[in-house]
Amino acid sequence: MDKRLIGKRVVRNEDPRLLTGQAQYVDDVNLPNMAHAAMFRSEYAHARIRSIDVSKARAYPGVIAVYTAEDMGADCYPGPPLVSPPPTVKDVIFNSRRQVPLVKDKIRHAGEIIAVVIAETRYIAEDGLDLIEIEYEPLPVVADIEKALEPDSPLVHDDLDSNLAAHLVQKKGDYEAARASADAIIQRRFTIERGTAAAMENRGIVAQWDAKSEALTVWDTTQAPIPIRNGLAARLGLSESKVRVIAPFIGGGFGPKIMMFYSEEMLVPWLAIKLNRPVKWIEDRRENFYATTQERGQVHEVEMAFTRDGKILGIKDDFIHDTGAYDPYGLTTPLNTQSHVMGGYDIPNFTSEFRVAFTNKTIVTPMRGAGRPHGIYVIERMMDIAAKELGIDRVEIRRRNLIKPDAFPYEHGIIDQAFAPLIFDSGNYEAVLNETLKAVGYEKFIKEEQPRYRAEGRRVGIGVLPFIETTGVGPYEGARVTVEASGKIAVATGVGTQGQGHFTSFAQVVAEQLGVDVTDVRITTGDSAHFNWGTGTFASRGAVVAGNAMHAAATMVRKKILKLASKVLNAPEEELELEDGMVRVADIPQSSISLSDLAALANPLRGAVEPGTEPGLEATAYYGPQYGPTAFGVHAMIAEIDAETMMIKILRYVVTEDCGTILNPLILEGQIHGGVALGLGNAYYEKLHFDENAQLLNASFMDYLLVGSTEMPRIEVHHLETRSPLNELGTKGVGEAGAIPVPALFAQTMEDALYDYNLEIRETPLNPNRLFGIARKEKTA
Amino acid sequence: MEATTQKIELSVTVNGTRYERAIEPRMLLSDFLRHEIELTGTHVGCEHGVCGACSVLMDGEPVRSCLMFAVQTQGHEITTVEGLGAVDALSPVQQAFHEAHGLQCGFCTPGILTTVTAFLETNPNPSEEEVREAISGNLCRCTGYQHIVDAVLLAAKKKQAS
Are B150 and B102 within 8 A, CB to CB? Predict the structure, then answer.
């Protein structure tokens, strides 16, 4: 019998509850005597608060309390910095400015909270909002990230000399020398605009204070329950053991649910203690558009140096990154961009300088892709332009520059988002490219099909391009694996789960070691009462960091099982087999013991044990990588466009992914499908439209277009497995991969489809109107 | 402003059980289901009728429970996701979603399950294109819809076989 469970297409353990409405999300927590909070948010993006009058709201029947910053007093101070600036880069500038629970004097983005109403029902709390009167003094608004850094710009933070939040330069080799010896220099400018993660579940918090035992319980839609617990305990002056944070089922995360601390996360637990009542706050969709963090705004000025046969000599990239009104998440996103602007290519000389700008917009923190799509957009657009200018086929110029299999580990000599050295651990990049070309039928399409389409007057284009994804960064995660008296396996880890299938893929890892069914492994994630060490679910790291901690803990438990069973069965450990929840002596099936009986023997109720014995069949293990593994993939697309309406139809979409060892192909494919859907949104549908006053003009699902079932093509997923040498399982992350290359691929495909327009796309997201505008301009130019 | 205190007697059947409650006329059906009778399987994603997560069946027809007042259901029959099947007795549609990995975070799933259950009653043997059209009013941010479409096609097959 094949005992391998890792790599099997196992259906998910968590599904039955989710499918029947029995899975608990934060808004499903209903507690006796629970009060409901509603937030009064600023309409202005930049304004001074002249006066606040909440007296009418306080007098409204059913309103329990109204709090402003003044009422909160000394407890109203900024949240902690989530990630500190990189200590290892010379001359880095980083001005840390963080959000507060309630704004006292100056509003820095539309949607900041000025007051909170707590009432017997949410309906009454919202009635109360209508009764609050604020007098504002509107201030000149910083809406544009380039203008933000001009000397005469208004200031988002008056105590700073400018809106510069950060400045950082990283170099490898000598770009200037490379430039001097180049045959061709290509310069371009690219703009990337904002989108939103739009998880189907908005944010929410329920906090319950037990005054008699001085214990706080918080249900939070967070991707990082343990750091939230630690931060809350510190903030509220409570012992960490008296604060329990539960991230139950979360309706999608995609990055913004790991922003620590949101104003509401500081506010709602404080209110529960203050009022000595459970308090619930559930964000609505409009609030989500203003108050949940966003991402993607950057402007790049790029230069690349090539030899005439298309070999890259170097790249110089200067960019501005929009952080919004505050920068609690440090430099993760722009550092990711820097790490990805060399793509999967062998580039000897590199200079990248970024400046981060404060603007009067919603805070920017990582969102699925997290700076990586920007880097890939820039490098892959440049490769397309270089291919045209040098007269080399676009696949061929990429092939000539991809990092070769024998060059790994490939050291870049710069630091990544985790301040660890940027090293690509392993890969077989050209094989992934070849697999994709074969799958999409590239040669045949170019030689036979496309000419036929064009003869028929149809504009059908093809795009193919590679990308890398740095994944699985530290610092660490942990897991505890226990064989329970029932013979079932209990596993706990600190990471939260937002739909990635952790209850199944982690169960596969453990079940394989312990010889049980996947359904006999019960995983608890994201509850500090069950496991209280960990950092969170981000950076495509669950399968790598938590997965390897699970594997290590399960391996330790296996050893304990074998050691004990060896004594009980009077047989050497190497002759024992773990199968079907039993330990058997090989070739003597009648000589066996169940895990259930062994668990009881390991935890005796009477009698003496040998010195040094630990009770139970249990182990806790941690995994923390020195640096993360880097995954690789190639996407290809064939799409038709109607040049009159610029409506598109995607005819083929092929993905080849190499994310090391695959834990569960079913779950992996689901992750890729979802990533591509977000990527298509970022390419052609989703854009947050801010006006010159930094007012969001499309803050609803009627105006902000998410990709629907009729826009999505069928995606064909292929796999190659180059195991990562960095961890026991050989895994690399994949959670964000699907989204990363899509805007660049879309641009390449559109240029190819609109071949008679001499089109050069240098911005994303596009939409039919915008593409029509660019195409017309280029044609008449 | 006066607090809205006037309450109306509502009698409605949900998943075969009759509920009688005195409620404010402004109470949304979604809030009634979730917080008055604690059937929290119905989820609220946008509260403006676009995402479809809150879809339930009224007399067998899909409706958006965030766009209806609870009092509008007076005397009607509502089916929520809890009424489709149970953990140990999944409906053919639920079973197909399990087998085809038609859900990830599960938040949009209840609205999709109710929509699809009604759809397969009227179109028991749909094409892929018809399936995509049928679920085009339900947003999902996790799956890219492919496994959902596969699940609906599988559910149709299961229902026909049974």
Answer: yes
Q: Do B47 and A284 touch (CB under 8 A)?
A: yes
Residue in the structure block whose two tokens are 């259906």: A11
Contact A200 B98 (CB under 8 A): no
Name the residue in chain A with its Cα closest to that of B80: A21
Q: In the beta sheet, which residues pair with residue A51?
A: A135
Q: What is the mean pLDDT of residues A455-481?
A: 95
Q: Which of B48, B44, B38, B46 shows the shortest CA–CA distance to B56?
A: B44
pLDDT at A418: 86
What's the average model confidence in pLDDT over A379-403? 98
What tens digit of pLDDT does each residue of B37-81 get? 999 999 999 999 999 999 999 999 999 999 999 999 999 999 999
| CB-based contacts of A456, cutoff 8 Å, min separation 6 | none
Q: How far apart are the first and last CA of chain A?
A: 68
- Out of A17, A251, A712, the one facing B105 most closely (by C-beta) is A251
Domain boundaries for CATH 1.10.150.120 within chain B: 92-161
How would residue A1 be classed by pLDDT, with cut points 50, 70 and 90? very low
A155 at B interface, C-beta within 8 A: no
**Mean of pLDDT over chain A:** 96
Give the closest-approach CA distance of B144 to chain A in angstroms: 4
Are the C-beta atoms of residues A79 and A264 closer than 8 Å to each other? no
- % of chain B surpassing 90 pLDDT: 95
Q: Yes or no: is domain B92-161 CATH 1.10.150.120? A: yes
Q: Which residues face A306 on adjacent strands?
A: A184, A312
Looking at beta carbons, which residues of chain A come within 8 Å of B1? 60, 127, 130-131
The whole-model pTM stands at 0.97
Interchain CB contacts (distance < 8 Å): A and B: 194
Q: Write the ipTM.
A: 0.98
**Domains annotated on chain A, with CATH:** 15-21+475-623 (3.30.365.10), 31-139+201-251+256-291 (3.90.1170.50), 298-473+626-780 (3.30.365.10)
Nearest by CB to residue B132, choosing from A254, A675, A709, is: A709
Which segments of chain B belong to CATH 3.10.20.30?
8-82
What lies within 8 Å, CB to CB, of A639 at 6+ separation is A460, A461, A463, A648, A649, A650, A651, A749, A750, A753
CA B135 to chain centre: 12
Give the model confidence (pLDDT) of B80-106 as tens digits. 999 999 999 999 999 999 999 999 999
Q: Residue for token digits 């996790």?
A: B142
Which of B:69-108 have CB within 8 Å of A?
Answer: 80-82, 84-88, 90, 94, 97-99, 101, 103-108
> In whole angstroms, what is the distance from residue A140 CA to residue B13 CA?
56
Highest CATH level, class, for B8-82: alpha beta
Radius of gyration of chain A (CA): 28
- pLDDT tens per residue across span A211-267: 999 999 999 999 999 999 999 999 999 999 999 999 999 999 999 999 889 999 999
Task: For residue A609, give every residue at least 6 positions away whose Cβ sits within 8 Å of its Cβ, in sequence order, or none.
Answer: none
Tens of pLDDT, residues B17-46: 999 999 999 999 999 999 999 999 999 999
Nearest to A37 by CA among A27, A47, A50: A27
- CA B29 from chain centre, in angstroms, equals 12
Which of B5, B138, B145 minimises the CB distance to A712? B145
